[in-house]
Amino acid sequence: MSNLSVAIGRTKILDNLSWSICAGEFLGIIGPNGGGKTTLLRVILGLQKPTSGSIRVFGDDPAVSRKRIGYVPQQLFFDRDFPVTVNETVLMGRLSSKGLLTRYGREDRAMAEHALGTVGMAGLKKRQVGGLSGGELQRMLIARALVGRPELLLLDEPTASVDPEMKTTIYDLLDSLRKSMTIVLVTHDTGTISQHVSRIACLNCGMAMHEPGEMTKEDISGMYRYPVDIVEHRHP
Q1: What percent of the chain has a predicted confidence (pLDDT) above 90?
Q2: 110-137 pLDDT, tens per residue?
Q3: At 142, phi and psi to the nearest 5?
Q4: 205: number of CA atoms within 13 Å, CB side?
């Protein structure tokens, strides 16, 4: 991104962002609600045009590169009584490369099996989506993103509605995935991500980059615009 800004009406959502991410990085993005985090992901996906400035993804316009990107949304709104299985939902991740009216082939089904195995849900492929827990639902969404074999994986608060044990499972999964793809993670887990990411971006309309462990109480208080205390836990 170079001097990129996004405004909706007279409200500036992102202000003059200039930064890059290298292949193989695991970037964590933190910031307050309304700070522009989801908008930033939409810009990378080519779903939101910048008001000014420029962005290139894999050297091209984001809309051109979208098929090389996997996306895990913050929330999935659906009718829990709708009869769709985990496997059928993961297969939907293949539609971007096949089109809506194309049948799934043997390769598609094999890729869905592999994606479910990667997230530890191979045994739940016939489960109705409405019967999944919050953590299982998030892992299914990650599998749906992985089935397209992305080179860049974007995740919008994937641990927001899961318990601490499942959060650990998801972060361990992301640690294994970073060996084969670049990851950008939006989260409010300011303490946890420092153990996993290669860099941290603080976003509240504008952006500041930090190496893990560099962030101070003043950095976080300035970004969230209210007093913050940092408590370190050093449990064995």
Answers
A1: 53
A2: 999 999 999 999 999 999 998 988 888 8
A3: -65, -40
A4: 10
Helix (H, G, I), strand (E, B) or coil at 187: coil
Could you tell me which of 58, 55, 47, 50 has the C-alpha nearest to residue 15?
A: 50
Q: CA quadruple 197, 89, 44, 35: dihedral positive or negative?
A: negative
pLDDT in tens, 136-169: 888 999 999 999 999 999 999 988 877 777 888 8
Across the chain, the runs of DSSP E, i.e. the strands, are 2-8, 11-17, 26-30, 52-54, 69-72, 152-156, 182-186, 199-204, 206-210
* Exposed/middle/buried for residue 10 (C-beta within 10 Å: 0-12, 13-18, 19+): exposed
Domain residue limits, the chain? 2-186+195-203+218-224
Q: What is the DSSP string of 116-163?
A: HHHTT-GGGTTSBGGG--HHHHHHHHHHHHHTT--SEEEEESTTTTS-
Residue 101 confidence class, pLDDT cut points 50, 70, 90: low
Kind of pairing, strands 206-210 and 199-204? antiparallel
The span from the CA of 236 to the CA of 234, in Å, is 7
Domain 2-186+195-203+218-224 has CATH 3.40.50.150: no
Distance between CA atoms of 202 and 178, rounded to whole angstroms? 21
* Closest C-alpha among 179, 207, 171 to residue 25: 179
